[in-house]
Amino acid sequence: MIPLKQMELIRMGLRSLVVYPMRTVLTMLGVVFGVGSVIAMLALGAGAERELLEEIGRLGIQNIIINSVKPEEPDNASQRRNWISSYGITFKDHRQIVDTIPGIEKALPVHVSKKTVWRGSKRVEATLYAVTPEHLDMFQLNTSIGRNLTHLDDEKLSRVCVVRSGLLKELGIYQDPIGFPLNIDKETYYIVGVLEEDSFLGYARKALSVDAKSSEIYVPYSSSLRRHGTRSITRRSGSSEATDVELNQVVISVTDLDQVLLTARMLGSLLERNHPEKDYELVVPLEVLSQRQKTQQVFNIALVAIASISLLVGGIGIANIMLATVTERTKEIGVRRALGARRGHIIAQFLTETTTISTIGGAIGVLMGIGLVKVLTFFTGWSAAITLSSVVLSLSISMAVGIISGIYPARRAAGLDPIAALRHG
Amino acid sequence: MNAPIISLQGVHKYYGDHEPRLHVLRGIDLDVAEGEYVSITGTSGSGKSTLLNLLGCLDNTSEGAYLLAGKDVSCYSDDDLSKIRNEDIGFIFQSFNLIPQLTVFENVQVPLLYGSRSIADTTDLCYQVIEAVGLSERIEHRPTQLSGGECQRVAIARALINDPVLLLADEPTGNLDTSTGEEVLSLIENLHRQGRSVVMITHDPDVADRAQRRVDLRDGVIVEAGAS
Ligand SMILES: Nc1ncnc2c1ncn2[C@@H]1O[C@H](COP(=O)(O)OP(=O)(O)O)[C@@H](O)[C@H]1O
Ligand SMILES: [Mg+2]
User: Fold this and answer.
1) A342/B99 CB distance under 8 A
2) Which of A3, A119, A390, B86 has its CA 20 to 30 A from that of A247?
3) B-interface mutation test, from A339, A352, A416, A417, most B Cβ less than 10 A away
């Protein structure tokens, strides 16, 4: 019985919103845009965070990656022709790591080199990754056609390779690629598998030193070492440059997740001792992830703070127009008081109006935010995730905005002297 | 002998907090018996509306006591006074004072929103009072779509919905032509015949004379013009 009366009160209270639709719409605009931007900001923030997780998670948070880094050369060095520069992680480092650092499950060696791959008259620059079979598993490099590299390939020093489909296109191979011979640096490798269509993203690409522009070719580590050695020669504008890097990369998998940071510290001090020239880089995905998440959170808070300012402005807008409405409806308030409305009734009426305006505005804002996110992701390729909690949050905030912005106008209305209100206009 | 429903004792009303104050009512003594029909006349600005607002518990006296059904209204809280206005008093104004965004039916319902009875139980009653003022055909109309006479009939229906013992009318025919005014008056007189006390302000002597008792407000005091 009482709920019905409340319903009726609300229904009649809301009549003025319907009677002046334009004003109602203008009143709610602030909240619409405020909530719309909150939704969009939260979605973009969540999307960025998810992408970060995917990106860095792909590296494996239990892993530590050591990359060889070419040290800054002295100026005159580049002028010397046919100079062999050697730097980076050595086999000795690798052995020391395996022998002296506890809690390491695997320490996978990787050798990376730029190679020219040719087939008939077609020449393509590619990056040769000499890896162990575990490496392919660890980074989910799965084949869609054919098979992956195996331990047997490694033992037998087989000349087999797994390639990206992009390379096949570049070389103009359109028939079944399995068993196809590829000429790599005077050696012939046979394709045994083609990797799935996916690629490392952003940070993961950098951490694994995967080149976005040239296709990857994965060959058994031992085969490459035996057949190509560790030296590589790059020709650059007339001069040729030889580098000797024993290991471009070592991927270390730590047994216990809790020990990752400790292991990283131990690795760091070992390498620091062996390489005072700092020709290496230590990548700890776990650390990077937590740093990035922290940055992202700060960024999210900033985004939401900015969006909240527009919500605040929206609330002020409602309060402002409601105050004008109170003046305009002074007579009505007087009449209602004469007919028996208590101050509480008048307050409830105005709060209902403002809360309805802001909640409907909030709902429209949610839809607008979703639309905005769709448009943004479509045109920019950003990733976004609209979460239920962000929708619930925005709707509750807009409801609160309605109540808060209604309090002052409602109290003003209820405080009017009934007589003065009745005599008004 | 029943106690009067209204009893004003030495009532003064002035506006403004400091001198020179506008001293509108200067010592009013007035009793209205239950079921009595009293008209109040007086020149414009003589304080008729001020007096009626006091009677309707919309305003407080500056001095003197107002006993409503034997109780001093100054004892009541603001919410109590709202309740009294809602249940015991029906107001009819010169300018109708309907709520423009509501329909005829909803305007009549407004006092119910603030009372204790449920809306569902009173739907039939709304139809009845609207029928009683002859507006059954106009239920879904808004005040702007009605003539002045019709508006005043809606206002009467609204004043009746909670079956008050006291009707207060402030120049109810003031904005109406003679024939529609006549209709409205006969409605009000009907309500008096049903046993309600009626206090009606008017500046039309002919209208005033139709009341059981006519009082004149002059220089802030009541001058009895005798019974009719
Ligand atoms: N709320 C108020 N504040 C100040 N003066 C008022 C107020 N209400 C009425 N008055 C003044 O009191 C006098 C009586 O007004 P009113 O009772 O409306 O007279 P009537 O209804 O007889 O024409 C007028 O001079 C009016 O201006
Ligand atoms: Mg008057």
Assistant:
1) no
2) A119
3) A339
Indicate whether A238 and A318 sit together in one domain: no
Least CB-CB distance to A339: which of B79, B100, B114? B114
Reported as half-sphere exposure (CB side, CA atoms, 13 A), residue B107 has a value of: 31
State the Cα–Cα distance between residues B117 and B122, nearest whole angstrom: 7
Residue with CA nearest ligand 1 atom 2: B15
Q: How many domains does one find in chain A? A: 2
Pick from A357, A62, A57, A34: which is nearest to A204 by CA?
Answer: A57
Boundaries of domain holding A394: 2-55+291-423
Q: What angle (nearest 5°) sits at the alpha carbon of residue A94, between those of residues A92 and A95? A: 65
- For residue A2, name the pLDDT band (cuts at 50, 70, 90): very low
> What is the DSSP track for A405-420?
HHHHHHHHHHHS-HHH
A410 burial level (CB within 10 Å; 0-12, 13-18, 19+): buried
- A87 and A225 fall within a common domain: yes
Query: What spacing in Å lies between the alpha carbon of A179 and ligand 1's midpoint?
Result: 107
> Which of A250, A278, A306 is the last residue before a domain boundary?
A278
Helix (H, G, I), strand (E, B) or coil at A273: helix
Strand order in the sheet with B22-32: B22-32, B6-15, B63-68, B71-72
Domain ranges, ordered by start, for chain B: 4-227
Asked whether residue A93 falls in the same domain as residue A213, the answer is: yes
The pLDDT tens digits for B28-67 are 999 999 999 999 999 999 999 999 999 999 999 999 999 9
- Residue A286 within any structural domain of the chain: no
In a domain, A285, yes or no: no
Is pLDDT of A75 > 60? Answer: no
For B59-88, the pLDDT digits (tens) are: 999 999 999 999 999 999 999 999 999 999
Indicate the class that CATH gives domain B4-227.
alpha beta
Which pLDDT does position A1 carry in this prediction? 37
Q: How far is CA A167 from CA A122, A383, A386, B36, in A?
A: 11, 28, 37, 106
Instruction: Give, using CA atoms, the residue closest to atom 18 of ligand 1.
Output: B49
Q: How many Å apart are CA A206 and CA B225, to the nearest integer?
A: 104
The encoded tokens of residue A197 equal: 């269509």
Q: Which of A278, A304, A334 is the last residue of a domain?
A: A278
Mean pLDDT over residues A73-91, rounded? Answer: 69
Within an 8 Å CB–CB cutoff, is residue A342 touching chain B? yes
For residue A116, tell me if it sits in a domain: yes
Question: Per the domain annotation, does A61 fall within a domain?
Answer: no
